[in-house]
Amino acid sequence: MAQVKRLAYIQIEAKDVAAWRVFARDVLACEIVDGDDPRETRLRVDDRPWRVQVSTGDRNDIVVLGLEVDCVEDLECIHRRLLKGGVEVRTGSQAECAARGVRELLHFVDPAGLAVELSYGSLMRPQQPFNAPIAHGGFVTGEQGLGHVMLVVENVAEVHRFYCEMLGFVTSDFVSTANYGGQRGDFVFMRCNQRHHSLAIGYLPIGRRLGHLMLQVRDFDDVGRALDRVQRSAFRQTRALGRHINDRMFSFYVESPSGVQVECGWGGLEVEEGDLEVRTYDVTSAWGHQHLLNK
User: Fold this and answer.
1) Cα separations (Å) of 151 from 95, 144, 170?
2) What is the pLDDT of residues 236-261, one digit of tens each?
3) H or E segment at 8?
4) What global pTM score does this model have?
5) Listed residue (182, 208, 186, 150) closest to 290, CA to CA
6) Which of 47, 164, 166, 218 has the smallest C-beta neighbourhood within 10 Å, fewest atoms?
């Protein structure tokens, strides 16, 4: 069955784009790619022209989830599947494709109301290698795509079915815990490549769609260096160092200028198809990851 192969990019709307530039450069070690419009910025973490776009707006949240397939045949197959399932789909214009650096593009909306873009043929620029603004070993992307996102949705079961049945995601596992920062948390984790999950969904009363974005570093010490940078900055660490129970990611969390959480991680589980039994856990982490109320 044709399926999504990776998380390609996300677009975020934020009230303070200038603060995002500082956060992304000085804390996350992303390369900043500014264009002609001072109201937006783009973040680069590998040989792609960009992976995260931050535009000026009031939402302080994700506005587009960018996914990709390997070939035009898979794009067409999923297009037909979406139409058969009653999903309204619009084909992207040449200008839209050029802005995202892709060959072809589909627009649709998931059952939670989030705009999704599905593409293939992403532009690569190995002649312009990722140039971190500070000493850094780079990020884990490639076939595994841009890290993962956790989306907050009210209709978890419906959204879960949509991403699995329409887009081909595979369920990795579930977490159902009575104490996620003092409240109940029920989460579903889904994969589309070797990364344990590219997409997680669940409900939390946080008032935004994007629970967090995870960026995975290649060098273990870059987690510690990032934590040092957070503690020297004006940005707030929101969860302590820890290791997640399911994807085994060693990480911590920091709050972006728009309130969106970013997980800085290393060592995530890689899954070969058929090697992972679907399980349910009652905690999110094997140790650590305490929720921090104050910086």
Assistant:
1) 28, 18, 16
2) 999 999 999 999 999 999 999 999 99
3) strand 6-14
4) 0.96
5) 182
6) 218
